Amino acid sequence: MKRVREVIVVEGRYDKNTVAQVIDGIIIETSGFGIFSDKEKVALLRKLAEKRGIIIFTDSDKAGFFIRGRLRGMLGKAEIRHAYIPDIGGRERRKSSPSKEGKLGVEGMGPDVIIMALERAGATFETTSAPPPRRITKSDMFSAGLSGQEDSAQKRRNLTKHLELPERLSANGLLDVLNALYTREEFLELALTFSQAG
Q1: Which of these, 4, 92, 129, 141, could form a disulfide with 146 (CB 3.0-4.6 Å)?
Q2: pTM of the predicted model as reported, rounded to 2 decimal places
């Protein structure tokens, strides 16, 4: 499995699941057109774009190109790259009939096609022989009081507000975002400072 530095933006959860089976990295879904009314998620994408860069990886149908174009405008001058899948006719396994345009989406692509699309987009594959930096773990979240405790949900809301992140992030979603924005050491320092202030 290849590690990708940039944050990959896909349309939905099935796309996310497919890409996550091929690469190790942060994958954010737009919830289709839902992204257009989610100011918090757009702000998060801007922040992630500044820190790591973004690759927009939507379907090759009309809706996918519409989402791609709108996102490009909404994110402004952020570092954005585009990954494109080829036009392949067919239907995804979970569907009883093909899409309106009769094309497979990201979820219907094989691993080789996904890697090739990301390579063509200029994805930064982190393939050093050095071990990856130590990531923030669920155990770190628990130790910081952000999961598994009676007041964890409130502490997560307080932290997301402090960091100007979407308040609806689940514990797992917050973990992904924290790993994209901070090193483990920065997170531990932040958690200590935040707990002392609260």
Answers
A1: 141
A2: 0.78
